[in-house]
Specification:
The protein is mostly beta strands and 60 residues long. The chain has one domain (1-60). The protein has strands at 5-8, 14-17, 37-40. It has a three-stranded antiparallel β-sheet with strand order 1-2-3, with no helix packed on it. Strand 1 and strand 2 (14-17) form a beta hairpin. It starts with a strand and ends in a 20-residue tail after the last strand. The relative contact order is 0.23. The mean pLDDT is 93.
Length: 60
């Protein structure tokens, strides 16, 4: 797999792709479903945290 890449979208999520692992604040792994790219919430309004669910579109 390739090196991890993070892309911060303006007024949107943080896209993560490549070779990465995702853990919670205690270091426990968070399942990503084997996806090559995931979108992490940057607005804090998601109901499916830490993943983006599109709520940023409703933010001012």
């Amino acid at each position: 797999m390739s090196e991890a890449k993070l892309v911060v979208k303006e007024d949107g999520p943080i896209l993560v792709s490549g070779d990465f692992s995702l853990c919670d604040g205690e270091g426990n792994p968070i399942e990503t479903g084997g996806k090559a790219t995931i979108a992490l919430c940057a607005c804090g309004r998601t109901e499916s945290g830490p993943f983006c669910d599109g709520k940023h579109k409703q933010c001012d």
